[in-house]
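Most newcomers find our protein records easier to grasp once they have seen one. Sequence and backbone structure share a record, each on its own labelled line. Nothing more is needed to start thinking about how sequence determines fold. As an example, a complete record with its sequence and its structure tokens follows.
=====
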Amino acid sequence: MSTWRWRCLALGIALAALVGVFALTLQPEPARSINKATHELIQEGMTEAEVECIFGLPAGDYSTKLPPGPRKLIQNRHKELAGLHYGIWASDYGIIVVYFDDAKKVDGAVFYPSFVRSDPTMLERIRGWLSAR
């Protein structure tokens, strides 16, 4: 293969890698849906499946920067409520605890804000840069 073809091949691979990295940064963080706004969408009488549709995720810990202390404190506090079924959704934006009754319908929900997330994500930086122009 000639030098020209090798250069074209290398350029094509580099461009494909760049597009792949850019596409990965544009994918939304699933945990971003665990926040005060989605907490307000939860209504009494919803099923757990409907709550999962709001978040786009099953109950779980999706935080990356939240220290384990607050999570453990909330989990331990809610374990004391014997016989009550609940789900905990945690992210860097906050923790949401949803209570379910015996019929597995929402009986209430609590939002605990998190003030840990201070630095913007790569996607937020790119969006900020693009919107500034």
Summary: The chain has five helices and four strands. The domain at 30-131 is CATH 3.30.1450 (Beta-lactamase Inhibitory Protein; Chain:B, domain 1). The chain has a mean pLDDT of 77.
